[in-house]
Amino acid sequence: MRYLCQDETRLGLKTETGRVITARGVKPIVSVQWPREAFWLYGVVEPLTGWNFCQEHPHLNSENFQKFLDALSRELVDDMAMMQMDQAGAHQALALSWPENIIPIFQPAHSPQLNPIERLWQFIKHQFKGESFSDLQQLRQRVQNELTQMSSELISSLTSYDFILEALFYEALLYASS
């Protein structure tokens, strides 16, 4: 049984901004663009191992979520997985057909801080701070490069919350003793 954490993030051509260090009295100069072109990155991570699976889709909706679930199910092959996720409408659509090897676990509403994959999204977006991309293809390429370069150890260190690891450890102990 595997424990996975799932979420989506929107990535677009709007420049990610943030604080930077400069000499006293010197303001940083960064070109900022505000276009509305974007895509969604659907993803899942396994905090214990750092394993991850991502797919790009043009919109956040139940149809694309179903495509993601089906692809994830094929990727898991014969493994069973509990998958933690938020209560987004796309995740709870009545039309969804849950694969037999994925068990959904919905976290409390309005609590993104409970989902470890949020830290992965934050880390990826931080890599683009101050950059402008000319088109979505350039951004897609950069996102793929970042994901490819990330080791499973880095992903595990970003997503392994102590309370999750302790819960999984105690569950494994209970399972082993029964």
From TrEMBL:
Pfam families: DDE_3. Keywords: Endonuclease, Hydrolase, Nuclease. InterPro entries: RNaseH_sf, Tc1-like_DDE_dom, Transpos_IS630-like. The keyword Hydrolase applies. One of its GO terms (molecular function) is endonuclease activity. Residues 3-140 form the Tc1-like transposase DDE domain. This is DDE endonuclease.
